[in-house]
Amino acid sequence: MNTPALRLTDVVRTHGGGDTLVHALRGVSMEVWPGELVAVMGPSGSGKSTLLNLAGALDRPTGGEVAIDGVTLSGLKPEQLAQLRRRRVGVVFQSYNLIPALTAAENIALPLELDGQAALAARQEARAVLKDLGLGGLADRFPDQLSGGQQQRVAIARALVGERRLVLADEPTGALDSITGEEVLAVLRARCDGGAAGLLVTHEPRHAAWADRVVYLRDGVVVDGTAVRDARVPA
Amino acid sequence: MSVRLGLLALLAEGPRYGAELKAGFEQRTGGTWPVNVGQVYTTLDRLERDGLVTAGESDAEGRIRYALTVAGHDAVTQWWRTPVDRQATPRDELVIKLAIAITSPGVDSAAVAQAQRSATMHRLQQATRLKQSIDPASDLAWLMVVEHQLFAAEAEIRWLDQVEASVARFGATVPATLEVDAEDTVEARR
Questions:
Q1: Which of A193, B37, B72, B78 has its CA 20 to 30 A from that of B17?
Q2: B165–chain A nearest CA distance, Å
Q3: Domain limits at B7?
């Protein structure tokens, strides 16, 4: 595979205008390849969240290009964009965001069902994913019957079910204690070792250290870190 | 410190040969602190001189078994009870470097901090990978040593973040020519 799962090319994002023009990102280029986990660090206001929203096609850049799996987003119609987002990108938030009325397996199956897969097949795939992660015993539990760490591991599984190969994680360990946080990162790491591409935004150095590369943002620019790398064959 | 205190602590578990002490010390500290045999025997000689250890008769193979005296046991007990003095750590080059950087005109202290942060993050990444490869059930000491490296690297990164935030907030202070009292060192201020 010679296509990065995510590529940002000279991305600029401004908010407002005139006297209140804010430069959230000032020309950021970076790539995330299949098989790697990349951490983004930086102080509050450095542009981390803007970067993640652009990477997840939840926002459009003022300038520059975002491409997911080699598909440049600026050329897509809204419905194409929605489909790409649904099929290719998984997002993990600090607050798990599992649907309370659905079991762990049903939560994971949901994106597949939304994408037209038959419910039975989708749930079988969801169970297989849970088993893979050593969470097979939790398949029929509802979110309120799971610990925070278990919910977050289910959320990561959901983010990478089906064809999805890019997971964007926004402080996924923010609400967890240190040991539970590490269990969640171990799942994320394992998924990336298995070929997924991960972009992890965190302010915890210990959690960023699970990544293959760490990119530092400051005032909307990359100040350090190997943000763009040569094409490579995934491990 | 203290190969000396480490050896005393091992001897508190029972009499040992020098070679056993060397192997035991290295194994119990997760292999991070290799000692040579000469160092072990020099230390044992000093401990014997100070009345903390007695040397037994040499056996058929010429090996000597060492044992703690009562004073030796007291010294070990004292060690467990007394906190390690971290104030007496040597001057830290990184602290000195950044302290000067933030007050030097023409030096980009943020870049200095960032270069350090990248290097420390690299260390943290290495320690994180190493930790994943350790089986705690069989190598708890090694795990503890690696976790110490992890926390030390993390603390350094957090401190660098703080330095940078403080510089951003309060501005780099550029001192005029300083008239420094020779006694006014960091140590003297403590």
A1: B78
A2: 8
A3: 3-81
Spatial distance between the Cα atoms of A205 and A41, rounded to a whole number of angstroms: 8
Place of tokens 């943000």: A227
Question: How many CB atoms are closer than 10 A to CB B90?
Answer: 5
Single out the residue in B54, B81, B108 at which a domain terminates: B81
Count the neighbouring beta carbons within 10 Å of the beta carbon of residue B41.
16
CB contacts < 8 A, A to B, total 40
Per the CB < 8 A criterion, the answer to whether A200 and A39 are in contact is yes
- Shared-domain flag, residues B13 and B99: no
Q: Which amino acid is at B53?
A: V
Cross-chain Cβ contact B165/A43 below 8 Å: yes
Domain tally for chain B? 2
The rounded Cα A214 to chain-centroid distance in angstroms is 15
Alpha-carbon gap, residue A136 to A96, rounded angstroms: 19
Q: What is the pLDDT of residues A19-38, one digit of tens each?
A: 888 889 999 999 999 999 99
Residue B116 lies in a domain: yes
- Calpha distance A136→B8 (Å, rounded): 50
pLDDT for the residue numbered B184: 53
Whole-number percent of chain B with pLDDT over 90: 47
What domains are defined for chain A?
A: 6-224 (3.40.50.300)
Q: Which of B118, B125, B161 sits opposite A209 (nearest CB)?
A: B125
The structure tokens listed for A209 are 């250290």
Do residue B61 and residue B124 come from a single domain? no
B120 and B170 co-located in one domain: yes
**Which residues of chain A does B165 touch, with a Cβ-Cβ cutoff of 8 Å?**
43
Q: In the numeric block, which tokens belong to residue B181?
A: 């009292």
- Nearest residue of chain A to residue B110 (CA atoms): A223
pLDDT of residue A175: 79
Helix intervals (H) in A19-101: 48-55, 78-88
**Are residue B22 and residue B108 in the same domain, yes or no?**
no
Cβ of B157 within 8 Å of Cβ of A224? The answer is no
Residue B86 lies in a domain: no
Residue listed under structure tokens 């599992």: A98
Among residues B26, B54, B81, the one where a domain terminates is: B81
